[in-house]
Amino acid sequence: GAVVSQHPSWVICKSGTSVKIECRSLDFQATTMFWYRQFPKQSLMLMATSNEGSKATYEQGVEKDKFLINHASLTLSTLTVTSAHPEDSSFYICSADSIIEQYFGPGTRLTVT
Amino acid sequence: AQTVTQSQPEMSVQEAETVTLSCTYDTSESDYYLFWYKQPPSRQMILVIRQEAYKQQNATENRFSVNFQKAAKSFSLKISDSQLGDAAMYFCAYRRSKTSYDKVIFGPGTSLSVIP
User: Fold this and answer.
1) How far is CA B47 from CA A42, A70, A81, A91, A104, in A?
2) A89 pLDDT exceeds 90?
3) Cβ–Cβ contact A34 with B under 8 A
């Protein structure tokens, strides 16, 4: 099956700094990628839809200036958490859309101290 | 707006027994896709089974099968011969179409424990 990678798998950063998370589709091209946030024991919450070559579409309540999304190629989307605060600590998951279905990355655990 | 509901936050099953996880959804669309995803402790999302609404036949994948009741907007997952590796969070999900841009809407999840 198709493989989606995320890097890093776990990152710790200090409050006020920025951190970038990469999402790559390894063996297929994805026009659309999705970014989710997941708190412990909760469901996936869609943050934004990332489209190659155009601006991301953010869900209501998601700060677009805080969560910067760039989809520069058909195999790479990045999520940058700017000026991170402890409340941004969470598990972030990306998925890449193929013709058939969405394939999920393994997730990135972000801890802001 | 479409919504997905899973009324069982937690379920448990004896190893080798059968368990059914419930899911209901709300939509005004006639054609759509329904999914069950498994999220084990590793947190990697794994597609368990997919159902296309226009297909009458219930989908099956080895020990996993669904009971799709379109009129009732119900989509339950049956796991037969439960194994220890089936212990995970299970999410029911809805997607309006296979077109890119269409997001997947997830239910709140059911935590399944398997008792040896």
Assistant:
1) 18, 26, 28, 19, 9
2) yes
3) yes
Structure tokens at A35: 């970014």
pLDDT at residue A99 greater than cutoff 80: no
Contact A107 B43 (CB under 8 A): yes
pLDDT tens digits, one per residue of B23-62: 999 999 888 999 999 999 999 999 999 999 999 899 999 9
Backbone angles phi, psi at A43, to 5 degrees: -80, 175
Radius of gyration of chain B (CA): 14
Task: Give first-to-last CA distance, chain B, whole Å.
Answer: 41
Q: What gap in Å lies between CA A4 and CA A32, rounded to an integer?
A: 13
Give long-range contacts, CB 8 A cutoff, 24+ apart: A65-70: A67/A35, A69/A35
Q: Are B8 and B22 in contact (CB under 8 A)?
A: yes
Question: What string of DSSP letters covers B29-74?
Answer: -SS-EEEEEEE-TT---EEEEEEETT--SPPEETTEEEEEETTTTE
- Which residue in chain B is spatially nearest to A97 when comparing CA positions? B100
Nearest CA in chain B to A101: B98
